[in-house]
Amino acid sequence: MASKKLRHGRIVDLVKKHPVESQEQLSARLRGTGIRVTQSTLSRDIRELGLVKARGIYKLPQEAGSRPAPDTLRRSFQQLVTQAQVSGNMLMVKTAPGDGHSMGVILDAAQWPEVLGSVAGDDTVFVLLRNSRLGGKVLKRIEEFLA
What are the b/e assignments for 93-111, b being 16+ CB within 10 Å? Predict the structure, then answer.
């Protein structure tokens, strides 16, 4: 079985080089590179990589050229976030194990003006804010998505 890192790399390469319209098509292309994957693992990989469908084709978030819609953000936060806290100009977003990267991709794609960048681990995302006065504002936005 291919490692997650290798699988993710192949998925990114395939999506960049070929139009991929469905999970079945992506699975077939992966098999062509020697990687066999279950549907549930492929779904998780797509979520973790933050792939989005634009005009019926899977794309990397930065290639899709658009920010996630508020409903998409709300749904993502509700599904992935277990806790959020702020300290100074750092925001900590906790997720279930394995969901940190997905949350980081979503936060980066949101392109919030208060955020300089994020670093994602297995179950935690640290978000660097432009200044410490913005922490409450961003935390409130996240809490509204979670409500």
Answer: bbbeeebbbbbbbbbbbbe
